[in-house]
């Protein structure tokens, strides 16, 4: 989980548009963010294994 203060800070409008950055909608993580799914890799993996993301399957060789 990210710090609550950082999540709140990110939700406020930035002073300049280049200061905008993305955070995971579920946990608030700023790194390893997938724009297409709007979540971080940790949450993506959890949701994909539960089958909650349509069109995504776990690869197995």
What key phrases describe this protein's structure?
single chain, mainly alpha, 30s Ribosomal Protein S14, Chain N, 2 helices
What is the average of the pLDDT values? 91
Q: According to CATH, what is the class?
A: Few Secondary Structures
- Largest sheet composition: 2 strands, antiparallel
> Termini distance?
32 Å
Architecture (CATH level 2) name: Irregular
Number of helices: 2
CATH topology: 30s Ribosomal Protein S14, Chain N
Judged by helices, strands and strand pairing, the structural class is mainly alpha
The amount of beta strand, in percent, is: 5-15%
Question: Which spans have pLDDT < 50 for at least 5 consecutive residues?
Answer: none
Number of strands: 2
Oligomeric form = single chain
CATH superfamily: Ribosomal Protein S14/S29
Shape: elongated
Radius of gyration, taken over Cα atoms and rounded to an integer in Å: 14 Å
What does this protein structure show overall?
The protein is mainly alpha-helical. The chain has a single domain, classed as Ribosomal Protein S14/S29 (30s Ribosomal Protein S14, Chain N, Irregular), CATH 4.10.830.10. It is 30% helix and 7% strand. It has two helices and two strands; from the N terminus they run H-E-E-H. It has helices at 4-11, 41-50; strands at 33-34, 39-40. It has a two-stranded antiparallel ribbon with strand order 1-2. Strand 1 and strand 2 (39-40) form a beta hairpin. The longest helix is centred in the last third of the chain and has 10 residues, at 41-50. The radius of gyration is 14 Å and the shape is elongated. The model has no long low-confidence stretch (mean pLDDT 91).
